[in-house]
Design a protein that fits this description.
CATH superfamily of one domain: NAD(P)-binding Rossmann-like Domain
Largest sheet: 7 strands, parallel
Strand order of the largest sheet: 3-2-1-4-5-6-11
Structural class: alpha/beta
CATH class of one domain: Alpha Beta
Pfam families: Epimerase
Shape: globular
CATH architecture of one domain: 3-Layer(aba) Sandwich
Organism: Dissulfurirhabdus thermomarina
Radius of gyration: 20 Å
CATH topology of one domain: Rossmann fold
Number of helices: 12
Number of strands: 13
Strand content: 15-25%
Protein name: Bifunctional UDP-4-keto-pentose/UDP-xylose synthase
Length: 351
C-alpha cells in the first residue's frame, strides 16, 4: 500500500509513520513544513519525505494523490486561540485547501481517510456522542471559535456527498483528545495555542500557575496515541472494505475527566519523578474567565465523551491505556527532552 500523508510531521502523522515502518511493508509519501518530529524516519527507504506547503506545492500533491492508494490530509489549524485570533486562516487551510485535495481523490479514485474532529459535536447536550445520531450544536455567528468545527463539519458533509454522488471511497475519523510524546513543544509558553496537556506541563516545569479557564469545569476524554493508532491502522487495512463510507469516533470514554481533575492528576504524576517532585509540590491552580483567557469570541464545550460502539463492533477495537498511564508516558517523554535541553545549556549541572 502507498500512503500519501499531508502533515506527516505533525503529532498524528509522525507517530503513524513510525508504526507503519515498524509494523507493515507500506510506503509513505509525506509532506510537511519541517521534519523535526520524524527525525531519522526521513531517511528510511519506505518514507519519501518532501518539505513543502499544502497551499503551494499543489502539483506534487496532485501527482501523489494519483499515485497513492490512500490519502490522509492531516494538515489543519487545531488550537482554540487560533479560531478566535485568525478565523479566516483556519477556514482557508482547514476547509479550502483540504477540499481541493479531497476533490482530487474523487477524480483519481484514491481512498481518503479524513480527520474530522470531536469538536464537530459542539455543544451537543447528550453525551456520549454517537456518529450517526448525535446533534451537532454550535453557538451564534459572532462566537468565532466555532469556525473550526464548522469547517470540519462541512468537509464531513462534502465528503459524504462525494461518496454518494461521485464514487469517493472514504472513511471519516473523529479523534477525541489524543495525547502522547510530541504533541506540542515546551520550548516557549504558548498560552491558549498549545493543547491542554502540554500547556499544563509547560507551566509546571517553568514554575508558573496553571490557568483553569472557567474553573476547569469542562470535561474531556483523553486517548493515548498508541490506542488511537491501533484503530487508525485497522481503518487503513480496511479488511473487506468494512470501513468504507463510515464514521468512527476514536477515543477513550473511560478517560473522561474535568480539566481541573486533569491538572490535579498531572501534578500527582509529576511527583513520581524524584527531581521534579518539588515543582509539583509548588504547583498553583488559578481560575480565569474564558473571556479573559481567549477573548470575547470564545465559547466552550462542556463535555466531550465518545460513543465508540462503531469501532468496537466493526473493528473489534478497544482502548486499553488508562489516563494515569497515558499521562505518565507523555510526561516521561517530555521530561526526558526537557532534561536533555537543560543539560545542553548547562553541562556542569548548575541551576
Amino acid at each position: 500500500m502507498k500512503l500519501l500523508v499531508l502533515g506527516v510531521n505533525g503529532f498524528i502523522g509522525s507517530h503513524l509513520t513510525r508504526r507503519v515502518v515498524a509494523e507493515t511493508d507500506w510506503e509513505i509519501y509525506g509532506m510537511d513544513l519541517a521534519a523535526d518530529r520524524l527525525g531519522d524516519m526521513v531517511d528510511h527507504p519506505r518514507v519519501h519525505y518532501i518539505e513543502g506547503d499544502i497551499s503551494i506545492n499543489k502539483e506534487w500533491i496532485e501527482y501523489h494523490v494519483k499515485k497513492c492508494d490512500v490519502c490522509l490530509p492531516l494538515v489543519a489549524i487545531a488550537t482554540p486561540a487560533s479560531y478566535v485570533r485568525d478565523p479566516l486562516a483556519v477556514f482557508e487551510l482547514d476547509f479550502e485547501e483540504n477540499l481541493r485535495v479531497v476533490r482530487q481523490c474523487a477524480r483519481y479514485g484514491t481512498r481518503v481517510i479524513f480527520p474530522s474532529t470531536s469538536e464537530v459535536y459542539g455543544m451537543c447536550p447528550e453525551p456520549p456522542f454517537n456518529e450517526e445520531t448525535s446533534l451537532l450544536v454550535y453557538g451564534p455567528i459572532h462566537k468565532q471559535r466555532w469556525i473550526y468545527a464548522c469547517a470540519k463539519q462541512m468537509m464531513d458533509r462534502v465528503i459524504w456527498a462525494m461518496g454518494q454522488h461521485r464514487g469517493l471511497r472514504f472513511t471519516l475519523i473523529r479523534p477525541f483528545n489524543w495525547i502522547g510524546a510530541g504533541l506540542d513543544t515546551l520550548a516557549t509558553p504558548k498560552e491558549g495555542s498549545s493543547r491542554v496537556v502540554t500547556q499544563f506541563l509547560g507551566h509546571l516545569l517553568r514554575e508558573e500557575p496553571i490557568n483553569l479557564v472557567d474553573g476547569g469545569r469542562q470535561r474531556r476524554s483523553f486517548t493515548y496515541v498508541d490506542d488511537g493508532l491501533d484503530c487508525l491502522l485497522a481503518i487503513l487495512r480496511n479488511e473487506g472494505g468494512r470501513c468504507d463510507g463510515r464514521i468512527f469516533n476514536i477515543g477513550n470514554p473511560a478517560n473522561d475527566v474535568s480539566i481541573r481533575e486533569l491538572a490535579e492528576l498531572m501534578i500527582d504524576v509529576l511527583k513520581e519523578f524524584p527531581d521534579l517532585a518539588p515543582l509539583a509540590e509548588k504547583a498553583e491552580l488559578r481560575e480565569v474567565s474564558a473571556e479573559a483567557f481567549y477573548g470575547k469570541d470564545y465559547q466552550d464545550i462542556g463535555a466531550r465523551v465518545p460513543d465508540i460502539t462503531a469501532a468496537r463492533e466493526v473493528l473489534g477495537w478497544e482502548p486499553k491505556i488508562g489516563l494515569r498511564e497515558a499521562l505518565r508516558r507523555t510526561i516521561a517523554a517530555y521530561v526526558a527532552d526537557w532534561r536533555a535541553a537543560r543539560e545542553a545549556l548547562d553541562p556542569a549541572g548548575g541551576a
